[in-house]
Protein: TetR family transcriptional regulator
Organism: Psychrobacter coccoides
Amino acid sequence: MSSREKKKLQTRHAFFSAVLDLCMTGQSFSSISLRQVTREVGVVPTAFYRHFDDMESLGEALVVEELGSTLAILRDGLQIGRKRSFDRQIAKSIQLFLHTVSAQPQYWQFLVSERFGGSESVRKAISNLVKMHGKILGEDLALQPAFAHINDYDRRLLAEAGVNLFFSWIIDWLELTYSEQHDDEADSAEIEAKKQLMLHNCTRQAQMLFYGAYNWKSSEETHLSD
């Protein structure tokens, strides 16, 4: 990669970081203007168009390039569904997930807040990302003897339920992380106790989901009420 290409890539990532930082202040992506972003990056507005067609394409690229890489790294580290030791697989996976959330709060804040936000292109990009993540997790579950009796369709549904369950914890965990890191008056012992309780409850929820699936029969019929 030439120095010019490296500089262009750095500027592109600077745009991503500017959006994430602005969203961390409480703004929604759809409320952020092009001028705000260029001011954060320190470039003139015309420079924006060397990288993106508009704000929607910036948001979509952010999801695909930045958040997609984050989820891929996390997915490779998760032990749920992998054919490994049964030693606290679920507990270790929950700890890894929440640690990742704490380490990159701006990414996860953006994912959760914009998943049902006002930008259609960003919503679709996040939806596609979550579906792909669920599909791969479903394929991982097929490697686990505990889920060999479940068909592919049900494994995908189980994976999607697991992904949605994980995502439901993010905001509460971020609030605890934010208080721990930024509130000087916060009681660190109290916050740690709350984090341990949440970790326990999240692990137990995941155990109920996946242990319950162990007893599920794909031959079971599902009838919708009239």
